[in-house]
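Forwarding the complex inputs:
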Amino acid sequence: MEAAALAYLAAGLGAGLAAIGAGVGIGWLASSSMDGAARQPEATDDIRNLMIISAALIEGVALFALIICLLLAVTIFL
Amino acid sequence: MTARARSFGLAALLLLGLSLMGTARPAEAAEDVTLEGIVNNVILGHATDGYYLNFKPFANVELPRIMLVRTADGALGLEAYGSTEAMLRNGPYGVVSHGGDAEGHGGLVTEGEALNEAIAADEHLHSSVQRASGHVVLDLSISRHFVFGLLSMLIVFGVFIVLAQRYRRGVGRTEAPRGVLQNMMEVLVIFIRDEIAKPNIQGEKWRTFLPYLLSAFFFILVANVLGLVPYAGAATSNIAVTGVLAVMTFVIVLLYGSKDHYKELFTGPPDAPLLVRIIFVPIEIVGLVMRHLALAIRLFANMMGGALIIFSLIGLIFIMNILFGEVAAAGTVVISIGFTVFILLLKLLVAFIQAYVFTILSALFIGMAVEEHHHDESSDDGEGARTSGRLEERLDAVEEAVEPSSA
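Prediction (whole assembly, two chains):
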């Protein structure tokens, strides 16, 4: 395979893996916070805020990976 | 009635998609017929920064270029041109042509018929521009994201100077706030004060940082929402803009960091063995920098990602047209426009959430840095007793909820 094809492959695989990781992480987070909110409905507001902060932190890591994949895919043209 | 309105809306969307396809094809035909052309010029050209404002199909406004250059004889100079086209025609600059070798120096188009062709094909807007003799030290050109960043700054200034005048007159302090604007903004400001600044920053110190948090929130919010306006762009989808915002938070953290924060940063957690300290100190220092780097990347990637997805979905129509013909393209219009509307709604949500996330994380980081530990034993005990008291209260409430009969 030539270099460009390998770079595309790497970008696609990397994006997929990052999506899996972030999906598992945020899914876990959402499930736990729903459990929490269901057990203690009066704490729903606190839980929601904490959930958004943690989701942003998890998402940040996934976005790092996404940027790297984007760079891999785009630098071929430049 | 609603059904009719809905079907009208759907038809309008489809017509919009079809007209886009109809008008775009002849115009793009010269430059963008290949897949690389679509991805490189159209999708990336729209989603990333550029030196022009795109009002297709009406006009394409080129922005002024300002270059700090070092000429061939070694002197520094500042050169300003009205547009990229003027710069290429009048100055010693050339377009890096795609036909040339990969290094870029061989294929520099500086003048003549080749330059006219490149400008006619809008190549000067999409490819990089180089100086023929000497080199560019610093590109100070006004870019699209700069324009929209400035615009969002002006909007925030305008709205809040008007509102501040009202509060000075007493409207909102001695009597109820008046009008949609004042009510809406007061809700947001109070939300940031009570939900973001107060819980995350210890004691009364939130008063110092509330102005920064409010400015950051409203600038990011307005810039994000501008990204949803047709023909406009989000200044926050530029790593430089988000980077500067994150650097501001970082500088505040460094300047206002308490003694305890610095002590813990450089000597590790208190009461820890030496080995643990040796491991912890580099991690803490790297973590401090990475936190703020992630702050910039998060906002940038979210805004950039949204724009890229929308342009990719629209671009799918043209890609289908090239690969499978017009029928497939017409079929893709329905799917593409549907998904685009969905993503646009998602982007509206993301615009608010990202402004909120940036502000709350800034507040969190600042709060972590300015926090002072209680060295006084009695106050420490007081704090401990208070939390344990609250915990007991809460446990009682839970018991009450689980077994109401036992009480």
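Chain A touches chain B through 16 residues (CB under 8 Å).
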